[in-house]
Design goal:
- It contains 19 helices and no strands.
- The longest helix is centred in the N-terminal third of the chain and has 36 residues.
- The radius of gyration is 21 Å and the shape is globular.
Length: 431
């Protein structure tokens, strides 16, 4: 069995119980990731009033300025992860982004907050690609989408904690105190990760005697680009995320502006919706695609594609409702359906490459997904809201969200196109 250094644990130490612990630990790291990433969303109306900002500036904070550093640094950090110790990278990244979140609570002007949010993006770039690689080394292909989907439940638990804690701390104490309270625990949790997470041998889940060496970065790019399925699926995932981040990033502001709710009330609604509906949707997406994917690999794509097509009319219905109880009750279904895609997309991406390419492959998928989704989704939604506010007043955001939701129709086209070459592309993957 290959060794990557003295910190690589022997495969025999990865008992089923330890694998569950490691997956739970990595999921907890992802919870911290999304607490710190998304807390600005629940705080942005208070930040806007305090610092006198426009919607496009708020979209920049939660979107493009964060994402451009997140996705750009994600690729070299992932290359480091394919060659070095992934546990250490994750622990260091967690400490950095948590410290930068704490720093957000000390700023006095917009440019300081913008720089601190960029710092959060720099730290978070070191989280998911090495975590994805570790999970794929611990779980075989027929269990991988489920395991990666369990990890992705951390997104919705993080949103739950960020919304609930951020909303109420903001309402009682202020937005700066909210950043301080959620940032500091992550620094301490980084120590637990460093001391208890083991580094698995590369290719362990495939029972490879020796995984191939990590290739040059350009080789990974060329391999992924040569796979027509990956080209379509990465664009589909990016457009899917564009709607998720564009809508999710502005849902609290929509409820405050169009329905007159306070941040605490918004938290009481959106936090459990994210945790229960989003978390279940993420897990279900991996479980159901692993189940049906044994019959035909294309089910990994068909299921998320069908889910978002069903969600489009329901989402539009949410934004035209005048009663917030009805609107949010309907909203639970699009949240569940929209969460089904990420585990299957990551599992398919890892199935297209060799074990020593997985972290970089994840980072390439995340580059497309987060540049389009996280980078442009909240920002362009904010710009569209500013434009429509000129004619529609406080309802400008309502109509902006309807327009953004329709992008999912374009997304579904790429999903179905990617399914055409999927089986041949996975069959030709290097070992």
């Amino acid at each position: 069995m290959e060794s990557t250094g003295p910190t690589t644990a022997d495969a025999a130490t990865f008992t089923p119980g330890y694998r569950r612990y490691a997956l739970g630990l990595l999921t907890a790291v992802y919870v911290f990731n999304f607490i710190d990433r998304q807390i600005v969303v629940i705080l942005q109306e208070s930040i806007k009033q305090d610092l006198g900002l426009m919607d496009w500036q708020l979209g920049l904070l939660s979107g493009f300025a964060f994402a451009v550093f997140y996705v750009t640094l994600g690729i070299p950090i992932a290359q480091w992860a394919d060659r070095g110790n992934r546990r250490t990278i994750i622990a260091l990244a967690l400490a950095v982004w948590s410290a930068m979140t704490t720093l957000c609570g000390t700023v006095q002007v917009y440019w300081q907050l913008l720089l601190a949010r960029i710092g959060v993006g720099v730290g978070e770039a070191g989280c998911s690609p090495p975590a994805h690689s570790i999970i794929s080394d611990m779980y075989p292909p027929n269990e991988r989408a489920t395991a990666l989907s369990v990890y992705n439940v951390g997104i919705y638990l993080g949103v739950f904690v960020g919304f609930l804690a951020g909303g109420w701390i903001n309402q009682i104490f202020g937005w700066r105190e909210a950043f301080l309270v959620v940032g500091l625990p992550g620094v301490l949790f980084a120590v637990i990760v460093r001391l208890t997470l083991k580094e698995p041998p590369r290719g362990m889940s495939e029972k490879l005697a020796k995984a191939s060496d990590a290739p040059p970065l350009g080789d990974v790019f060329r391999l992924l680009w040569s796979r027509r399925s990956f080209r379509h699926l990465s664009i589909a995932a990016g457009l899917h995320a564009f709607v998720s981040y564009g809508v999710g990033g502005w849902m609290p502001s929509f409820l405050i502006r169009s329905h007159g709710l306070e941040t605490g009330e918004v938290s009481n609604w959106l936090a459990p919706i994210a945790a229960v509906c989003g978390g279940f949707g993420a897990y279900f997406g991996g479980w159901i695609t692993d189940r049906y994917g044994l019959r035909d690999l294309r089910w990994y794509v068909w299921i998320p594609a069908t889910a978002i097509l069903v969600s489009v009319p329901l989402q539009v219905l949410v934004y035209v409702q005048q009663d917030h109880v009805i609107a949010l009750s309907i909203y639970t279904i699009p949240v569940l359906l929209g969460a089904t895609y990420l585990g299957p997309m990551l599992a398919l991406t890892h199935g297209l490459v060799a074990p020593r390419m997985r972290a970089v492959a994840s980072s390439v998928l995340f580059f497309v997904l987060n540049l389009i989704g996280l980078g442009l989704g909240p920002w362009l939604t904010g710009i569209l809201s500013d434009v429509l506010t000129v004619t529609e007043g406080t309802e400008g955001l309502r109509y902006a969200l309807i327009v953004v939701t329709l992008v999912n129709l374009w997304c579904a086209v790429h999903y179905f196109a990617g399914a055409r070459n999927l089986r041949a592309d996975v069959a030709g993957a290097p070992k």
